UniProtKB/TrEMBL annotation:
Organism name: Mycena albidolilacea
Key words, A-Z: Carbohydrate metabolism, Glycosidase, Hydrolase
GO process terms (BP): carbohydrate metabolic process
InterPro entries the UniProt entry points to: Glyco_hydro_43 (IPR006710), Glyco_hydro_beta-prop_sf (IPR023296), Glycosyl_Hydrlase_43_Enz (IPR052176)
Protein name: Xylosidase-like protein
Similarity field: Belongs to the glycosyl hydrolase 43 family.
């Protein structure tokens, strides 16, 4: 597939349909001299752009064969938030997401960044339109930590919203093995370390219910369980082809919740299925094989709404010739079989 956006490097695409259009909330990758390391320091992004598309020309049937030729027309709405706009943030605006809040009639951008102490937190910023601009809160969302926020607004009467987050290694999730408060943060786990060993379960992504205005957590932080289909037990920490690493996403189809994620150092997009927004989810397979580049990160969205056509937004490093921190957003259609399993790779 050709990249959707070729005038900037973009990654970690969170796509949503607002007012009949697709909006993409990606990271904005940039050149840096910072050396590649397992802490992800080279992902040194400092602003966000928002992009929109009126339609998705099917990349399979369109004549598009190279970047910029014949693919869907994408509008760049420009810079919508910068690090220097965010009072609590010091650096590294990583993978964002956004949601519409019916209670306030506002659009809310969720984003991770390091705070002044170098700890990753999740911030919120609000705007009047899906394309922003977004005004950040003075402080990060209380009770949050780590990276990669993703929001599911459920289709119940209250439009209950759930925030998923977390990421291992540079994302610091492994530093919260004792609990979810600042007092539980264990700096001795910082760096490329994670739980391991016979019988040790993988760390789960974190999730919580959001308040009606989407600006605070309305429930305690919960560790999401991903069960191994074969054993019925939580996926093992040493099972790097199945364990959660980062890039949480949750979408709902026909009453089932599909929780998808990156497996990190095995470079897969995996998914698990459950009956409730906070899980448990049972591992069900892979969505995407490894792409060119170390990271993989995505979103899944139905477009047009209620069409049962589903699209995987993802990224790879083809446009930069394989530079891990210079990625480009792509899209392709995905399909389900009669049992609701995603026909993956
Ligand atoms: O873009 C920076 C980080 O790389 C994201 O937060 C991760 O999910 C990975 O894609």
């Amino acid at each position: 597939m050709p990249p959707l956006i070729t005038h900037l490097y973009t990654a970690d695409p969170s796509a949503h349909v607002f007012n009949g259009k697709i909006y993409i909330y990606p990271s904005h990758d940039r050149e840096t001299d910072i050396k590649f390391n397992d802490n992800g320091d080279q992902y040194d992004m400092n602003d966000y752009h928002v992009f929109s598309l009126d339609s998705l020309v099917d990349p399979v049937t369109s004549s598009a064969s190279k970047p910029g030729a014949g693919g869907p027309k994408v509008t760049d709405h420009g810079v919508v938030l910068r690090t220097e706009d965010v009072p609590w943030a010091s650096k590294q605006l990583w993978a964002p997401d956004a949601a519409y809040c019916a209670t306030t009639d506002k659009y809310v951008l969720f984003f991770p960044a390091r705070d002044q102490q170098g700890i990753f937190r999740i911030g919120v910023a609000t705007g009047d339109a899906p394309e922003g601009p977004f005004v950040p809160e003075e402080n990060y969302l209380p009770g949050t930590f780590s990276i990669d926020p993703a929001v599911l607004v459920d289709d119940d009467a209250d439009k209950t919203a759930y925030l998923y987050f977390g990421g291992l290694w540079g994302g610091q999730l492994q530093c919260y093995q004792k609990g979810h408060t600042d007092a539980d943060y264990d700096a001795s786990w910082a760096g490329a370390k994670e739980p391991s060993g016979p019988g040790v379960p993988a760390m789960g992504p974190r999730a919580a219910r959001l308040s009606a205005d989407l600006k605070t957590l309305a429930s305690p932080v919960h560790e999401v369980t991903i069960l191994d289909l074969a054993t019925g037990e939580p996926v093992a920490a040493d099972d790097h082809e199945k364990r959660f690493f980062e890039a949480a996403w949750c979408h709902k189809r026909r009453g089932k919740y599909y929780f998808s994620y990156s497996t990190g150092d095995t470079h897969l997009l995996a998914y698990a299925v459950g009956d409730a927004p906070l899980g448990p989810f049972t591992y069900a397979g892979t969505l995407l094989a490894p792409v060119l580049g170390w990271t993989t990160h995505h979103s899944v969205v139905e477009f047009p709404v209620r069409s049962d056509r589903w699209w995987l937004f993802y990224h790879d490093c083809e446009l930069s010739g394989g530079v891990d921190h210079l990625r480009s957003v792509k899209v392709k259609e995905i399909f389900y079989d009669g049992k609701g399993r995603i026909i993956g790779e």
